[in-house]
Amino acid sequence: MYKIAMVSMMALLLAGTSVSTASAGGRTNRAVTSEKGGGAVADTLQRETKMGLKPFTNIDIAVELADVTFLTAADYGIEMSWCDERLKPDYQVKDGKLSVFTRQHGSLGLQRAIGGQVIIYLPETAVLDQVSVKTDLGGIQIADRNITSMQAYCDAGEILLNRVSMQTLKVDTDLGAVQVLDSKVSRSTSVRGDAGDILLCGNIQGTVTIDNALGDVRMETTAKADTYQYDLTVDLGEIYVDGTEYREHCARQGGSSKLKVRVDAGDINVIFAGSNALDPGAVKTDIPYKAYIPYGLSYVVSSRELYYYGEPVRGFIDRTASGSGSKDRYYNRGVDSDVFLQAKYDQGKLSGVEEMSEKQIKEVFGSAEGK
Asked: What's the mean pLDDT in 237-251?
């Protein structure tokens, strides 16, 4: 599998926004400062969590200055965080559809604001029909879902779909990378980007259309070459099909699936029957997350990437439920986070998850420098 990229800070810098991180209460928050001026807001987040929502199969999200994440949980729920009341999302569940939206859109004239978050909690067995997610400034991360029709729109931020099975997929982004990893699309895929690399990797079949103005396009599929007809065009860059290089244009007839890619500036790389392409059903996580879900610990984008109430986990330590003292350590040095956790047991039974003290972190993981 490909290494999962972190949310691009460069994308926000190019958009005229400076980004920094600030640690608060053991959590890492992303602070965003606008150069346009205007009314200042407090750099703290308000948070609202509601579990036990009515079941839903359709989702429609339209928010700004917020990352959107889907997490596996024991029940349907939503968690929202925001820094200014004008950015507070509203939500409702009606007729099997969850709607999440920010009432006021456009420039709010904020001098300083912390990027918020919308987390959708879903049971592992939940199957979604129609899903539409739009963020003005923020990323989208969805993993381990079965979705009939998926639409993702992002003005500035990265879109990451990991181990997602879909019939149709439509992605539209102005600034930021698009990654669809270890996923399946059976009918149609449409991806449009203005600036950012596009990567599709998995069981990708049907009609695939990719249009990218600035950035590389790479598609690696489990399908064999003779199942595809393709039309690949680049104005400034190179084209590679299974390692063979072409200039400007490359086409092939035949095959039930269709691939059309156009890039203004960047390379096109297409790999059939790729060794890195995996069907989502063939990928398994190696963290036994289910036991920890009631205590806020879950996983999202890839194997061994943990989240605690929506924040990435850098270190986690557990011991066997037998109370023998045997410990399993987890240390993700690539995560930009100060969250270190430990499991709590009561007479050999898991009773919760808590954050580790600085002394415990040093004793178990050593120095936290070089994160």
From this structure: 95
Other Cβ atoms closer than 10 A to 53: 17
Nearest partner of 140 among 151, 126, 125, 149, judged by Cα: 151
What pLDDT was estimated at residue 177?
92
CA atoms of 217 and 198, how far apart (whole Å): 5
Query: Rounded to an integer, what distance in angstroms lies between the CA atom of residue 197 and that of residue 208?
Result: 16
Six-digit token pair at 341?
């956790």
Q: Comparing C-alpha atoms, which of 75, 165, 94, 79 is closest to residue 127? A: 165
What gap in Å lies between CA 32 and CA 155, rounded to an integer? 15
- List the structure tokens of 202: 């998995």
Q: Which residues contact 217 (CB under 8 A, 6 or more apart)?
A: 197, 198, 199, 210, 261, 263, 266, 267, 268, 269
Q: What is the pLDDT of residues 86-99, one digit of tens each?
A: 888 999 999 999 99
pTM summary value: 0.72
What is the bridge-based pairing of β-strands 77-82 and 46-51? antiparallel
Let me know: does 125 contact 145? Beta carbons within 8 Å: no
Question: Which residue's entry shows tokens 């979705």?
Answer: 147
* Number of C-beta neighbours around residue 15 at 10 A: 17
Dihedral pair phi/psi, residue 14, rounded to 5°: -65, -25
Question: Does position 200 have pLDDT exceeding 70, yes or no?
Answer: yes
Q: What is the CA radius of gyration of the chain?
A: 21
Task: Output 347 or 102, whichever has higher pLDDT.
Answer: 102
Number of other residues whose CB lies within 10 A of the CB of residue 224? 10
Whose CA is closest to 307, among 353, 362, 363?
353
pLDDT in tens, 260-307: 999 999 999 999 998 888 888 776 554 555 567 677 777 654 455 677
Give the C-alpha separation, 294 to 290, whole Å.
8
Spatial separation of the C-alpha atoms in residues 106 and 23, rounded to whole Å: 28
How far is residue 31's CA from residue 353's CA, in Å, rounded to a whole number? Answer: 27
Scanning the chain, the segments in alpha helix (DSSP H) are: 9-14, 358-365
